[in-house]
């Protein structure tokens, strides 16, 4: 969607975290009035920033990190002035590309009076900008593994072609390029998903704080949430609010998010009673058997089980069946929880009409007897 | 002590110990009794025949639900197509942003992924190609976990056995099963036929259906010794391009990030049928012949001179043989419209996917939000008692079957059939008389996803 140029308002950090970009003005008027053209995949995005507030960090000459007034990263952008072609006859490409703090594509912006062009230097129309924007937002396009010469069907002795020169677009990519701008599409996509994206991810990953993690997790972008959960630092301070957020994510219906959130907690963090309790609370609230199983297995990695979790687990034993019962008894066995109270509860299972449950209980009790000897 | 002296001392000690040990070793041989087949009679509640995709899940479900369970598998490991057949990326468990098949099948797949340190695809996004939501698993891990879970559930797993006679009399099944050195008479109240070929249904005389021309099987292999990106494909006949590409997952733009490598080269085996030892042998031999010919031909091509096979599955995986004539036959229209029946017990999601003549695939993709379902009646042969099937022999027309046959669907069917069989056993009735609500309740307890509930 086109974005508007406006100042970053003093909105909440949460909103700013998810919205780095802007909008264009009315596209048609943009061309007529020679105003700036910009498109974003995020309706809340704004490209504007205040230089006066010293909110830019530069990496080299062209890559910048925009920060909020409190210093939290907001988005990155990079300015490019490059040729799309190889014979220097076409218009050079002058453009700024924007990424979220996680390296997710946000949008692009052209300098004033600049426009993108196709074969024979014909300017893009608004629909083509929109299409280009959607293509750039798709990380799954196959351009990373393609060479320039694979984009066009051409005689083997042809020189490397350019968008300003006509040629037959390869059928393999014809539906995933702007018509007449195959090289522009290809080049921009490779910029968006090239080394800069990795650099951004690496840089943000190195400056993660509880506050920044909360910002990303509270914002409304699934991709960013998954990104930060997959990079969750083991030594990060687990604030109460961060624990609450992670618990909510584990309990929610979206499997991928719940799965990733459960995996964000590493074994080394399970020394903390707070984290163990958070996980066990999530166990009680989750409706997904596979997530419950993941949580129990995760708790199995803890060096010990805290008292609250042991006490809570006893309340579940008689209600469980199938794999959930196996998981729970294995967890207690692993942590050598063979106290009298637990044994009494497990003994009740011996009278269950389901022989599978009886057998699981018996196995647990056999081990408990050995442990208590 | 010098090195030489130490060596000679050690040598002396070694010779001395050989001298001491040799007489006792020589005295240990005994005379073996002549080979004799051991005959046993065994009683169980539920007998499951076929430890493949559906049967493994069925056995675990039956055991966990408290039934005394026997699982007969003619091969040497569990998992069938997923393991022995080499199609080790089962699916599809999620679609349209939701999970549609859960339960024991998903539990096994997820544990395989976890144990192998793999990464799941992001199921919240609809992929541009359906197979991107299939989950690559390490087949060895899958087979190990499947066996562990069967044993944990108390299932009596019997490898290398196959039934040769079944008879239903006095409300019980009498099954003669033979294997290496064993002959068993198994009596049980319920049978679940998970052979994939409706073998047991056929033995008992239930009607089976088969197309004149069935889909080809696949012998799965992998190869190395060439670089697909360096090949000049203009100098290689097009008929070989597919083989060279299919061997490399990266050429399929697979971006799920899994660690498990699933090289999926395959040669088609027309008419592959693993119903009997003879047809199965033919299918395996044909597959191996085709592969050998392919490799010889590939090595003649520029850039492929060093191609070598790195893995070949021991059996040809089969897509289509027989289907039962069930109480209800799932139609193509039922499948593509996502019809949910009162007795639907499991979902199924895959395109209509018919491999034709080993040359092309007819595919029909399901429209957004459409997910097919499997009613209990499609798992029950007409006029049968105490008998269910699960897997690709589900009662269905050919086009519906080409989508229903995939692994996640078969896992769902296996769990549903087992839950039904256990309840039927406990109540002394036939599966069609078990209240559907009771089956659904039992399935939910064991993590299955019931159609209509999402």
TrEMBL record, chain A:
Superkingdom as given in the UniProt entry: Bacteria
Protein's recorded name: Uncharacterized protein
Native source species: Arenibacter palladensis
Automatic annotation (TrEMBL), chain B:
Keyword field: 4Fe-4S, Iron, Iron-sulfur, Metal-binding, Oxidoreductase
Lineage of source species: Bacteria, Pseudomonadati, Bacteroidota, Flavobacteriia, Flavobacteriales
Organism field: Arenibacter palladensis
Protein name: FAD dependent oxidoreductase
Pfam families registered for this protein in UniProt: FAD_oxidored (PF12831)
Domain of life: Bacteria
Tagged with keyword Metal-binding: yes
UniProt-listed PANTHER family: COB--COM HETERODISULFIDE REDUCTASE IRON-SULFUR SUBUNIT A, FERREDOXIN:COB-COM HETERODISULFIDE REDUCTASE SUBUNIT A
One of the record's GO molecular function terms: metal ion binding
